[in-house]
Amino acid sequence: MLGLTASVIGILVASLASEAATTSIKTTPARSSEAYATLVYGEDFVLAARVLGQSLRESGTTRDMVALTTGSLKASSELTLAADGWRVVHVAPVKNPGTGPQPTGFPPRFAYVYTKLYIFQMTEYKKIVFLDADVLVIRNMDVIFKCPGFCAALRHSERFNTGVMSLVPSLEMYDDMMAKMRSMPSYTGGDQGFLNSYFPSFAHSPLFDPETPYTPDQYKAAADMDSKSALQPVQQQQQQYMRLPTTFNADIGLYVVGSNRWMLPRSSLYVIHYTLGPFKPWVWWSGWLVRENPAWQAYRNRLRADSRGLSGGRTHRQLFAERWMVLLPWAVVLTAICIHWSVLAPALLHAATTALPAVSHLVVRCRRTSGGPGCGGGGCGGGGSAVATGAGVGALSLGGAGTDTVLRMLGSSAAGGGGGCGGGGGCGGGGGGAAGGGMEVFPKYFMAGSLAAGYGCVLVAVITTILIVPSEVEPVYGWILSYEWGFMLLGLTYGSYLRTCYRWGRRAGHIAALQVPKLHSAPPLPLLETAASAAFLVVSLLLAPWLGELLGITSFAGTIVATVFIGLGVIVVSTVQFVFLPTQWYLAGRLAGSGPRAA
């Protein structure tokens, strides 16, 4: 424990020390006449920008790489970007004027996307190619600098996407954009909608073909064919346009909905644009749907060490999660077992000594009664058995182990009263005749409360797991951490509720009609039933995300359907168990009660 504490403190101290030791960097001058540029909005986009830079470097480009930032980055992050080869440029943030169709004009994440327009005034370069941070360059794309004037790829019919743009900077055009920014509508509420309004005739521009051996003058002549559109404002009529082919802006969303297949040969693509909403490649769970994420992760793993000495784009928070958070759930489980060993040991011994004989007994009875009621809807017990009283008690319990003994006694005691564990409403249903008439077994609304408590525990476990597992961890660690912490938290919270039901039953008092059989020296705990339910839940949730892959399903819709199918099955069984298990623990508590409940 002391070693774990020392390691955690060491990681935190190293993080603080590295941050304190860094200083702000100064913008370096341009090194070439053309550049790739991206906008790093905040710390959340630093890793994305680093991977973009890594892909550009590995493509063999000789152009500058410029990272625009509004000063919201830590000094250590700016130093890391500079060490990666980015020319870090501080720009003033441009607030969204709110001209979109939304009630507030724009989604919250678009608050400062108009800052991207700064690239139009970067006149220290003859040509700028802007790339969103969620872009991955998979082969050298320097040929895009041959595209004259303003170039972008059409995405939604006549609309172009601003995630990849080639342009010639112009102070006059930038000033004109700033003047029109508040009055010109934006269909997205951001820079993309604004630029589509600013260049209204772009959809009519000719297609740029990188495979055609045009000279720069020939490209300009092709672009000039449609530049002087009557729809274009006077100050823009000298601007040249060309449409970029899909290979320069391959939309990952179309890849996913196309059953994880590209419409073009992958070898022909220059860029993969990860546009699919929250499924960004740096979010560990997004690879469940996006099969191109491993390509992005491969570039990430090749990142050089940052200013804090961490390689592979890792953070101290990520290292803490991958080194220590993986072990912590196991430590908690072992601690809980040690604390409750005095209770668990006798129960486990009892379960071990009764489970096998009970199973053998059931097998013999099933063989004897084959062709009769036998192993039918009422469980393995035959027609007149108390075990078969009520459809399904025998099926839900594990053959005489644990609280099945309680249910047998409850069925026997209620045989003459029409209540008990019967098909007419479960254990003690209809106001209960568990004690031979007139005495309620369960408190009012016990079943509904147990169901709410079960799903409440699930909700707490899921939300807590989402909050504590860092989104930037590697996918394999993300799944391991989520399963470990989710199951541990659910086990602790729901296990506490079951123990509460047991204590609640003890306080309610013993039911005189129920007696512990002579074979049992102490009231049995329903551990086998609980363990079986937990095992089903664990196996089902482990399989849920991967069922489609196990079945060979690669399409987006098929994966969703397979996951929903197994998820619905888990919900149905969990609903039954969230009612059944608390009743077993409550009955076990009542059986162990010290005396009859006061009238």
Automatic annotation (TrEMBL):
The chain crosses the membrane at residues 324-344, 445-470, 476-497, 527-547, 553-581. The keyword Membrane applies. Gene3D superfamilies: Spore Coat Polysaccharide Biosynthesis Protein SpsA, Chain A. InterPro entries: GNT1/Glycosyltrans_8, Nucleotide-diphossugar_trans. The keyword Signal applies. SUPFAM superfamilies: Nucleotide-diphospho-sugar transferases (SSF53448). Keywords: Membrane, Signal, Transmembrane, Transmembrane helix. It comes from the Eukaryota. CDD domains: GT8_Glycogenin. Residues 1-22 form the signal peptide. This is Hexosyltransferase.
